[in-house]
Write a structure and sequence with these properties.
alpha+beta, 60s Ribosomal Protein L30, Chain: A, 5-stranded mixed beta sheet, 10 strands
């Protein structure tokens, strides 16, 4: 029987088929799924901020760099093959508008770029993504198929 594992904000979880992973309330945050279809193992992270180097306080799962590192460690412990890992991501919306639009406030965009850089650094191909816009997302990831289901308010549903 399939079990849905909930991933909270600034959190990550790993699972094995038939598990599914789910996170809600992705605004400027990024939901990233890293998985190995052959071993049927995958993980999801709900990342809030681009870099721990800028302001590392408390929870390492909050930041793109440190969270992806932790997620990968757990995936390797479960037996994934580094060369078979793939990734998908969603989120990174610009939820608020600010006068002057300083790049520092473009958290969603910066989060998406940071996750992409971390994946590149780890040699993990990003197969698909749904980022940007001004709306929140809830995502469900099926470890068995590698499908990422994205639900949005007023923008329907899609699978990548």
């Amino acid at each position: 029987m399939s079990n849905t594992i909930l991933v909270g904000m600034a959190d990550y979880k790993v699972g094995k088929t038939p598990d599914k992973l789910m996170t809600a309330g992705l605004g400027s945050c990024i939901g990233v799924c890293i998985y190995d279809l052959q071993s049927q193992i995958g993980g999801m992270a709900h990342i809030m901020l681009p870099s721990s180097r800028e302001m590392m306080k408390g929870n390492a799962a909050k930041y793109a760099d440190s969270c992806i590192e932790l997620l990968l460690e757990d995936l390797y412990k479960m037996g994934v093959s580094r060369i078979r890992l793939k990734a998908k991501m969603a989120g990174g919306a610009q939820m608020f508008t600010f006068a002057g639009k300083t790049p520092l406030l473009k958290i969603g965009e910066r989060n998406a770029e940071a996750v992409e850089q971390e994946l590149k650094k780890a040699g993990i191909p990003l197969l698909a993504y749904d980022v940007g816009g001004t709306f929140g997302r809830t995502i469900h990831f099926d470890i068995k198929t590698g499908d990422l289901y994205i639900k949005t308010i007023n923008h329907g549903e899609k699978v990548i």
